[in-house]
């Protein structure tokens, strides 16, 4: 009996394997969204920079937190684009590039999940901090709404708990010999 698979099965499997390229336009779309985020960052920077000498310390911190928030979101996008592409579509042939970040090619799906949830927790925490800093200030852009504040804290804690549970699941999976 021949050890070769039937021709139709081989073609079907090759087609399934080639279907990974359907993800490529999605990663390209994420690159476009990174460009959009860059424009938003520059708009925020252009808005706050001329006000540098008139901002209070708290207003300056809020402006900086806004910029940090945007840069964290951009970092998250890059991680998803690079790691997702390399894990699910094709390896990036950049071995001779000295500027290649050391984590590229080393972040597996589990690592990607952990970086994703850590970034979401950081972004959520920064947003929550910005709201907390505005509480009780005269002329605040954010009126105190206890129900909204409760839900923001609850959602943030849900992100934190999700991150801890994902880390625990990955740790348990790493300890298990059978997968």
From TrEMBL:
Subcellular location(s) of the protein: Cell membrane
InterPro entries: UPF0114, UPF0114_bac
Membrane topology per record: Multi-pass membrane protein
Transmembrane segments: 21-41, 61-82, 112-129, 149-173
Keyword presence, Membrane: yes
GO cellular component annotations of the record: plasma membrane
Keywords assigned by UniProt, alphabetized: Cell membrane, Membrane, Transmembrane, Transmembrane helix
PANTHER family assigned: UPF0114 PROTEIN YQHA
Family membership noted in the UniProt record: Belongs to the UPF0114 family.
Annotated protein name in UniProt: UPF0114 protein KM031_14170
Organism field: Gemmobacter fulvus
């Amino acid at each position: 009996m021949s050890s070769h698979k039937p021709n139709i099965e081989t073609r079907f499997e090759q087609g399934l394997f080639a279907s990974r390229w359907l993800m490529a336009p999605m990663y390209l779309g994420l690159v476009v969204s990174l460009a959009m985020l860059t424009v938003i960052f520059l708009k925020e920077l252009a808005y706050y920079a001329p006000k540098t000498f008139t901002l209070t310390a708290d207003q300056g911190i809020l402006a900086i937190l806004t910029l940090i928030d945007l840069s964290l979101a951009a970092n998250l996008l890059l991680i998803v684009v690079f790691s997702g592409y390399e894990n699910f579509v094709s390896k990036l042939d950049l071995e001779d590039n000295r500027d290649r970040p050391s984590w590229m090619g080393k972040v597996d799906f589990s690592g990607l999940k952990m970086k994703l949830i850590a970034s979401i927790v950081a972004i959520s925490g920064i947003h929550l901090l910005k709201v907390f800093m505005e509480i009780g200030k005269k002329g605040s852009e954010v009126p105190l709404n206890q129900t909204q504040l409760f839900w923001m804290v609850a959602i943030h804690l849900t992100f934190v708990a999700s991150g801890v549970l994902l880390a625990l699941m990955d740790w348990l999976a790493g300890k298990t010999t059978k997968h």
